[in-house]
Hints:
Layout: H1 2-21, E1 22-34, E2 43-55, E3 59-70, E4 78-91, E5 95-102, E6 124-132, E7 137-146, E8 154-166, E9 169-182, E10 185-186, E11 190-201, E12 206-216, E13 221-232, E14 237-246, H2 265-268, E15 279-290, E16 293-304, E17 311-314
Antiparallel strand pairs: 1-2, 2-3, 3-4, 4-5, 5-6, 6-7, 7-8, 8-9, 9-10, 9-11, 11-12, 12-13, 13-14, 14-15, 15-16, 16-17
Amino acid sequence: MKKNLRNILAVGLGLMTTVAFAQDWNVDSRTRIDMGGDNDKMETSQRATLGATWGGTNWGIHGSTVVNYDLESPQNAASLAVYEAYASTDIMGYANLTIGRQALNYGSGMIIGSNEWGAERNTRDGMTFGLNLDMADVTVIYASRMDSATLTNGSAMMGVNASKSEGDWTANLLYTSATMTTDDVDGEAMTAMGLDLSYNMMGGDLALNVGYNTASNGTVDQDMTSIGATYNVNESMSISAAQTTYGENGFGSIYGSNYGSGAGSWMTHGNMGYLNNSDQMMSIGGTYAMGGLNLGVHMHTVSNDVDDTYERNAM
Length: 315
């Protein structure tokens, strides 16, 4: 009797421990409909993410999976993959260390972003070391990924991000250096820097934003600049306008960035993507919220400072 009671208590303690540590479960489902083709095209894609987080006072473990399903696929095949899997711990209250596969977002996301809109989002296998300093929140980033088939091709990235918010303004500075490896030979390092500034006026109804991004591979220097403003007309409606300009060498895609390239960027990244050399884009738009439903529309006009005959429109 005592042995059976002991076994029951042990099982009960194990169940209670599991429940106590299962801190959070989350499910996210998104549906995308593409009607941008000819002959009444309508392609529907479904993405579902299931995640769980366990943790204690100074530690945490997170894992999530993602399922993508194309409703119009002839094979009706679904793909299953690991989205995030990492462990984090607090270091004596001064820093936080996270190791594993993570979806990272810093600043505007032009250089490091997770691309939450796309079916295949960006993640990095590596570590982040966050320092909670009085002057700023500083994060050191390291990520590496190798081709499992050859073990001779891959890439490595190191970076530092610093952000600061005080009163009505916010600043974020990101610096990264990425190296591609082919047949065990490292290529030239591609460095990138992004500076994002924002300021709220009129009691927070008007938000001003400025972004400046540069990249270099030791031979070619690239840059892009963006300025924008968003005005909250009321609690439900806001309007925005922005201008983005690219330098004479453009601004190319950095390893794992949040932006695509070309017309296909709408389906892969949900944005206009990186533009061409010397391109300039004007954007206006608005959003309206009705309870749990949010509606938004944006119009983009792209011109070129060198070619006066070039113009591209998207909505």
